[in-house]
Amino acid sequence: MAGKALVVIDVQNDFCPGGALAVDGGDEVVPVINRMMAEFDHVILTQDWHPADHSSFASQHEGKAPFTDIEMDYGPQRLWPDHCVQGSPGAEFHPELYVTSAELIIRKGFRRGIDSYSAFFENDHTTPTGLTGYLRERGIADLTLVGLATDFCVAFSAIDAVKQGFSASVALEACRGIDMDGSVDAMIARMKAAGVSVR
User: Fold this and answer.
1) Contact, 124 vs 37, CB < 8 A?
2) Residue ranges of the Isochorismatase-like domain (predicted)?
């Protein structure tokens, strides 16, 4: 298993029931992921980590409601409720997640002017998080991705993993989606088309 890693995407309080951007059943993935961690020599966590005035927050755009789409200089951007603000309880990992199993935590979305769904790149698709270099230097080529949410950060991370030359699979039993207008099925189709193994 030396060349394989479990990449756990954004299992944070704000994405779990009661959180600012709660995913239905988001907390249900925690025991599944904890069991999976024991099967991997390498575990990597990502953590949404926004400044309070992040440009993806609807509160920063007068007259705009959450879940509407706007155009940013890097392309389309969905506006969200304020969530995962740096240092807030909502940004913390779910309290039952085995955080100590992780050898690396990648924080993303900390640049005010750009959002970051993928564990590999900001939403301009060019600004790297550093994860690609870490994996290559460690000789890790085979990734299993789990977490929240299936149709956003998990899917974009998996697609970018393949683009970066890694083997990527998504374990749906350990994911939950936001599912806006059929977005889970649409993103599963996009992942499969990109070469991601979805199981």
Assistant:
1) no
2) 5-198
